[in-house]
Specification:
single chain, five-stranded parallel sheet, 11 strands
Length: 287
């Protein structure tokens, strides 16, 4: 099998390439030739390149790994991405791979194409850490992006200030070493958002190292697909409930067994993810 993989630089996607190649898939990165079996795109950031590939070889079926699609991105079209153009190309795809039910819901609501969606849970980095690096320096860690226009944005910072709880947010400004240190030394992580496709893979990286996770119970919170009953949930539309859950968790943080947390996400492995992608392409190719 031969694919054209259209993707920006991404620590979540670039590791796909050697695994795909090891499993017998020839990968052209951001290039196209007429003998490709599929054009596989991974989001909106390279839409122009995706369009060019399709226009050159319109007979090649297209697949998109649709990482996210949010209400606020659709309503606010002033950003750097052409979300409407992206939506048009999602409709042209033979299949959409989605990391969670949140994305499937939005695909149906905005485009009526949930029938094209297949959930393929994403992998996450399981970086190594010794037991003496995993400590609790008593602060809450919110690792998500600052520029999200989510209706719940800022709730955790405000609640921690009102409760006198130390709070840290890195806003993707730390290098890898400092990021890992902050994560390994927090009391627990949190995703306050109403809507997120995975809740942020840092939640999983933290849980893997024994850090509990608080997330909203919103129907648009994709972290539920990953954490299940391992997560700590607050009412997504109730700030006071967030404060209550935050204080309860701060006062009595769960003690997680590292052996168990490291087994919990065995299924979120890059090999398993790639196997599912290849299986889907074989089904589509063989019809």
């Amino acid at each position: 099998m031969k694919i054209c993989l259209i993707t920006p630089q991404s620590q979540n996607v670039e590791p796909w390439i050697p695994v795909l190649q090891q499993k017998g898939v020839e990968v052209l990165l951001n290039e196209i030739s007429e003998d490709c079996d599929f054009i596989v795109c991974t989001g909106q950031a390279r839409l122009n390149l995706w369009k060019a590939a399709h226009e050159k070889f319109p007979h090649i079926p297209m697949i998109n790994y649709t990482w996210d699609f949010y209400e606020w991105t659709w309503k606010d079209q002033r950003g750097i991405y052409d979300w409407k153009g992206y939506g048009e190309y999602l409709q042209k795809c033979v299949e959409l791979w989605c990391p969670s039910e949140e994305v499937v819901k939005r695909m149906e609501e905005y485009f009526g194409i949930s029938d094209k969606c297949k959930i393929i849970l994403t992998w996450f980095r399981k970086f190594e850490a010794s037991d003496n690096q995993i400590i609790d320096k008593r602060y809450v860690y919110n690792p998500l992006r600052q520029y999200y226009l989510d209706p719940n944005y800022g709730w955790t910072k405000k609640a921690c200030a009102e409760l006198g709880i130390p709070y840290v947010e890195t806003v993707h400004t730390f290098d890898e070493r400092d990021f890992q240190k902050v994560l390994l030394e927090c009391s627990f992580t949190i995703c306050e958002y109403y809507e997120a496709s995975t809740g942020g893979l840092t939640l999983l990286e933290g849980y893997y190292h024994g850090k509990p996770c608080i997330v909203s119970d919103s129907p648009y919170m994709g972290a539920k697909d990953y954490l299940g009953d391992k997560g700590i949930y607050f009412k997504y539309d109730d700030y006071e409930n967030l404060k209550k859950v935050l204080k309860e968790t701060w006062d009595n943080p769960p003690k997680l067994d590292l052996k168990e947390t490291r087994k919990a996400f065995d299924h979120l492995d890059i090999d398993i993810m790639i196997d599912k992608m290849i299986d889907r392409m074989n089904v589509l190719k063989n019809g």
